[in-house]
Amino acid sequence: MTACKRIVVIDDDPDFCEYTRIILEAASYDILTASNAADGLELARRTLPDLIITDVMMSYTLEGTSVTRQIRNDPTMNHIPVLVITAIARTPTEDLFPPGAQPAPEGFLTKPVQPGALLAAVERCLSSTDACRLH
Q1: pLDDT tier, 9 (very low <50, low <70, confident <90, very high otherwise)
Q2: Distance (Å) of CA 66 to CA 12, 27, 108
Q3: Domain spans in the chain, listed from the N-terminal domain onward
Q4: Please, what is the Cα angle at 4 between 7 and 75, to 5 degrees?
Q5: Residue by residue, what is the 3-state secondary structure of the chain?
Q6: In this model, does residue 134 exceed pLDDT 50?
Q7: Would you state the pLDDT for residue 80?
Q8: Architecture of the domain spanning 6-132
Q9: Is the pLDDT of residue 19 over 90?
């Protein structure tokens, strides 16, 4: 892992943002958080992070899919990998983004997320976009 990679975490749950920040900062990542999609997208546009982690359900159901779509449609951010984390208790989560449909994120994790799984997913997303797909 290369130290000092910047990650933007977008989630309306402050406890999850703090949990994620603690885990990833301990692994030498620079973490910025936002509590809603609008603030998260603005933060990402301003800082151009190496990775964006977003929740699916925030102020409305499937808001994270809208965040991903906006990132993919923005030429200044469409190269940034997206890791979606969700508490939606159905599987597979990937059906939120049907195969071949744009904008698909690079990876999915289901809450609650174990620290090791979070770190592994982040490292995969940062090292190779193609290797980040979590099935």
Answers
A1: very high
A2: 15, 29, 15
A3: 6-132
A4: 45
A5: CCCCCEEEEECCCHHHHHHHHHHHHHCCCEEEEECCHHHHHHHHHHHCCCEEEEECCCCCCCHHHHHHHHHHHCCCCCCCCEEEEECCCCCCHHHHCCCCCCCCCCEEEECCCCHHHHHHHHHHHHHCCHHHCCC
A6: no
A7: 93
A8: 3-Layer(aba) Sandwich (3.40)
A9: yes
Give every CB contact of residue 15 below 8 A, 6+ residues apart in sequence: none
Calpha distance 110→116 (Å, rounded): 13
With tokens 């499937």, the residue in question is 62
Residue type, 15: D
Q: How far apart are CA 105 and CA 67, in angstroms?
A: 10
Place of tokens 């983004």: 97
